[in-house]
Amino acid sequence: MSGTSLDGIDLAQLSFHFSGGKWAYEIGVTATFPYTSAWIGRLKKAVDFSSEELVELNVDYTKLLGQTIFDFIAQHQLTSIDAVCSHGHTILHQPQNGFTLQIGNLPELAEYCQQKVVCDFRVQDVALGGQGAPLVPFGDRILFSDYTYCLNLGGFSNVSYEQNGQRLAFDISAVNTVLNFYAQQHGWDFDDRGAFAKSGKLNESLFNALNALPYFELAPPKSLGFEYVKTTLLPLIDSFSIDTASKMHSFTEHVAHQIALALPVKTGSLLITGGGAYNDFLVARIQHYLPNIDVVIPNKKTIEFKEALIFGLLGVLRLRNEINVLHSVTGASKDHCAGYVFG
Question: How far apart are the C-alpha atoms of 17 and 147, rounded to whole Å?
């Protein structure tokens, strides 16, 4: 799994068990392989690449991903692997134009890592008229049904929950794609615990301008891509002549506010995972807007590898030819079984 926040490539050894109509799981050894500065630069710029440059990037990234997976398996002496289930890395996401691109999903991936591979989970859903995202909510329903809401705070925030017998889910807002961008202007990979953002001041004009963006008026299903960050969010934020800490403070307040608005019932339990779960300032502001919800921060492995865990489950379901994408979440014409199998 590689997320839009560019933390690196997440790898996890996963074991799934199906008994009595229920799925259970174990997370074994895990690792995150950070990207080199050269790869970070290339992935950041890829949204503007030509078709030829994207083809070359896809080939190179598939090789990088395959070698990383191979090394992980060898390092931990993993055996009896049923399959490698791989998300790849999202470069373009334009479901409104019938298009989404996750690089690293070429058939050669199976050759590089010398395993059966299940990958490229989003394109079939877009072809069926869906958003191709979010896909994690199907796993939320199966593995994390004890929680009223499952919230991921990664490059973007997304939430999933049950309503009238259906699983609903959607992207709420950008999160770390924006916060990391400004933290990196000060030489940090990210704002540790949100301390720098907390030191800033709320700019109500910026806060109100962010909340007034048309995306928040759209009904689900809906999803976001990095194009939105580049063309809409960053220009808006930078149009305000305020210090960086106050930009990040105001944006964090906006994220928390929109998360609260997105939850139809303001009671129950909220499981928070993804890198944003370590942002104490953001989590505190979410709790401020949702005083009657029990906010749950799980163990480190669940925080960091929940998305990898669920894409592993989606791959297992694909191998079993069972439904792994819900049209109630993505807006596709039907529930379906997504993913390509190579090797």
Answer: 20
